[in-house]
Amino acid sequence: MTVSVQEIDLLHEVAARFSREAQRADVREYGSGNINKTYLVTPEGEVEAPFLLQRLNTVVFQQPELVMQNIGAITRHLDAQCASVGRRWEVPHVLLTNDGADHVRTPDGAYWRALRFIGRSRTVDVVRDPELAREVGFALGTFHALLSEHPPEGLADTLPGFHIAPAYLAHYDEVARGAVKPDSPEVDWCARFVAENRHWVPVLEQAREQGLLRLRPIHGDPKVNNILFDETTGQAIGMVDLDTVKPGLVQYDIGDCLRSSCNPHGEETDDWRAVHFDPVLGKAVLEGYLEVARGFFAPADFDYIPESARLIAFELGLRFFTDHLAGDVYFKVARPGQNLARALVQFRLAESIDAHFDELKAIV
Length: 364
Prior knowledge:
The chain is α+β, with helices and mostly antiparallel strands. It is 44% helix and 12% strand. It has twelve helices and eleven strands. Strands 1, 2, 3, 4, 5 and 6 form a six-stranded antiparallel β-sheet that branches. The longest helix is centred in the last third of the chain and has 22 residues, at 305-326. The radius of gyration is 20 Å and the shape is globular.
C-alpha cells in the first residue's frame, strides 16, 4: 500500500533519525499486522539497506521500553546460538538511531523503532501442504530450542494477562453483560458457543499451578505469517514480530502455531462454516517442531499439546468476539463486523479441533 501524502513528511522525518539517506527514501506501508503500524523504508542510495519502521501501539504495549529490553535480550541470545541451527537462520535486529538510541519519540507521543529488513525472504498467510507445515513447526521448535536455556525471569512480562484464558473469559462476561447485542444469528452462535465450551478455558493455567507445566521464554504470537521463509528454498529462516516475547507456557505458542497453520481456509475467509482443522497439516507441524524441540520437553509438555490447540483457537475467538461487542477497541479493523467474522473463524476452528481431538492426541 502507498502511504498517504499526509503521512510522508512525518515518516521521512522519523526515518531520518535512523538513516542519513531516508529523506530521499521510498516509504510504503508493509505487512498485515493487527497491532503495530509498519512501513518499509528503501533509501535511494546504495549505501544503506532497506529497513522496517514501526510505530508501536502503546495502548497495547503500555511500557514499550520493556518491549525493547526483551527484544534486545532475546536477539543477543539468539545471535550467540544461530550457528547451531546448521542452516540459514536470521534474527530481526533492532537498529539504533544516529545518536545511539533504540527508539524515537515524536511530539504526538508516538513511539517509533526501526528493524533490519531481512531480504530474500517471504511470508505466507495460509498453509496448504505438509512440507510447508513441517517448516512452520521447525521454525517454532528452533526458536524454542535456542531459547530453552535463557532464564524466563530475565524477561519482563510486557503484556500482563496475555494468554491467560480465564482472564479473557472474565473480561468477555463483563463486556457481554453491558453490550447491546444486535439481532444477528452470527452473534447468537458465538454467544452460544462460548456458553457451551467455557469449560475448556482453565486447563493450561491449572496445569501450571499444579506444577505440571513451567514457564519458559515464548514468542507469544507465532502465527504462520510471523515466520520468514527463504524465497528460493522455501525453508523457514526465522521468526519476526518479537514484541510479545515474554515468560509463558510453550503450549500457548504450540497451540497458536497449530491454530494458524492447520486451517487451510485462512483467518480472514468469508466462508467461516467451511473452516476446519487439517490433521495432516497438524502432524507435519508437530513433526517439524519436535524434531528440534523434544530435547527440552518433559512428559507433561506432550500431554497438553492437543488441549493447547483447541484452547488457543477458542481464546482468540473469544478475544475477537469480545472486541466486536466492545466496539472494536483493541484489534485493527478495515470494515464493520470484521472482528465478528474473525471470531466466527476461530470458534469454528476450535469446534473442528475438538472433533479431531482424539486423532490429535494419537498424532502427539
